[in-house]
Amino acid sequence: MQSRLKPILEILITKGNSQYGREAVSQLEHALQCATLAENDDRTPDLIAACLLHDLGHLLHDLGENVADRGLDDRHEYRAMPLLQTLFKPSVTEPIRLHVDAKRYLCAVGSTYWESLSPASKRSLKLQGGIFSAEAAASFIAQPYAKDAVQLRIWDDRAKVANLSTPDLEHFTPILVSCLT
Ligand code: FE
After folding, report:
1. How confident is the model at residue 19 (pLDDT cuts 50, 70, 90)?
2. How far away, in angstroms, is 133 Cα from ligand 1 center?
3. Which domains does the chain have, with CATH numbers?
4. How many angstroms separate the alpha carbon of residue 169 from the centre of ligand 1?
5. What is the pTM of this model?
6. What's the CA-to-centroid distance between 30 and ligand 1, angstroms?
7. What DSSP assignment string belongs to 47-85?
8. How many CB atoms lie within 10 A of CB 144?
9. From the CA of 27, how far away is ligand 1's center (Å)?
C-alpha cells in the first residue's frame, strides 16, 4: 500500500524544504501545520490528507519559487490533480482543487477575511482571479466539497507559523495510506 504513496512522499521529502512563497515556513512545515490543525480539530482522515497535500502542486513545476512576484499564477491547485486522482477519492482531491477558489469565496463573504491575508496571499489573489462576485460565491459554495475547501483554506492561512513544532511526515503517513482508493 505504502509503495503507491512513494512518489508523493518523495516529492515532499526532497522538495518540501523549499520556502513557502514569501512566508516564514518551508513547504513541508506548511503542509504539516495545516494537517495538524485538521487533526487537532478531530476531522476525517480524508480532510487531514487534503490539508497535508493541498499545496503539492507548488512542488511540481520548475517555475521557481515566488512565482507570484513575477506576476504568474502557477495554478498549483490543478497541477497535482493527475497524480492525486489516481490515488485518492474526491473527498481528498476536491478540497485541494477548490482551495484557491475558497479564498476568493471567503473574501466575498467575510468582511475581515481579506485584511487578514498575508501580503503574499493578497498578491496571489489578484493573479488567481480576484474576489468572487456574490453570484460566483453562491455557485462556488453549492459545489460538493466546497465547505471542506473553505475549512482547509482557513487552516491554510494559519499554517504559516515560524518554528512551530508539529508531528512529522511519518506520523501522517498511515493517515494517507488509510485514504488510498
Ligand atoms: Fe497553502
Report:
1. confident
2. 23
3. 21-178 (1.10.3210.10)
4. 16
5. 0.94
6. 7
7. HHHHHHHTTGGGGS--S-S-GGGGT----HHHHTHHHHH
8. 11
9. 8
